[in-house]
Amino acid sequence: MVWTVPPTDVLLKVLGAPHHTELVTTLFRLAEALLDRGATVQVWTCAEATGLTRAALGDSKPPDLTDRAVDHPSTARLVRELLTGAPDRMSWYVCRFCSVDRGAAEQIPEVRVRPAARFWEHVLAADKTVVLGVC
Amino acid sequence: MLIVERAYRGAVEEQFADALYFVRELHRQSGGVELALRGPAAGYAVQTDRRPALRIAGRPLDRLPDPRRSVQQLLDDGVAVWAEEPDLVALGATAPARLIPGVRCLAEHELASRWPTYARVWFF
Question: How much is the ipTM here?
């Protein structure tokens, strides 16, 4: 059977790089707030944002040298927890072109890598599209 | 002299590892640095009683960057911390009065005039 994009209330398309601004914090807060209100949400990451779910990140950030006992979750783990916490209402897609172009082809298994040429299907599957950041 | 201008570079990604974390480590490795906060980063030197919390997928993220606490740690470590006064004023009329004790104010253009007194000047 041919897979089609499940319809959602909102598509959050994310461009732009982590570690530069509060873009990623905004993304997580928006997704969390939408889920809290019972919405269905899909995220599509492009450009450097595809690195948020890079498999090589593992579950944790490198240790804090001043307090090694504390575990700090990676963005990949936070995305995984977001997905497992709302499996029927939350999905996360990664642009294949962008992820390969930036050496982030290896992604965590919970996300779905999609061809750039299929992006518009996601726009059509969402009642509302919100784009965050720029390349 | 380390100059920090860009502020708030991604709380979720950085968590404990913000720019000031590495300033502290450079201070330890080099034997002594000074820190100048300007632009939006001048706000790091202004006391506030509000620290927003963040929860993702039920997980509270309680180790997000806390720049005021980090500035206090740097002061405790012996780092001279400066903040540019025009940038403090731009944050609000009361901002200069809420400067973290120990942080010193720099007048406009004073920072560049001090560069010759430092062995290295890094935009950080």
Answer: 0.89
Q: How far does Cα B26 stand from its chain's mean position?
A: 14
Domain that holds residue B45: 2-123
The radius of gyration of chain B from alpha carbons, rounded to an integer in Å, stands at: 15
Measured between alpha carbons, how far is B1 from A10 in angstroms, rounded to an integer?
A: 46
pLDDT at A45: 98
Residue of B nearest to A84 (CA): B57
A90 pLDDT above the threshold of 80: yes
Length of chain A: 135
B77 chain-A contacts, CB cut-off 8 A: none
Q: Which CATH class is domain A8-58+71-132?
A: alpha beta
Instruction: Kindly state the helix (H) or strand (E) to which residue A14 belongs, with its residue range.
Output: strand A8-14
Inter-chain residue contact B10 with A24, CB threshold 8 Å = yes
| CATH number (domain holding residue B20) | 3.40.1260.10
Domain residue ranges of chain A, discontinuous segments joined by +: 8-58+71-132
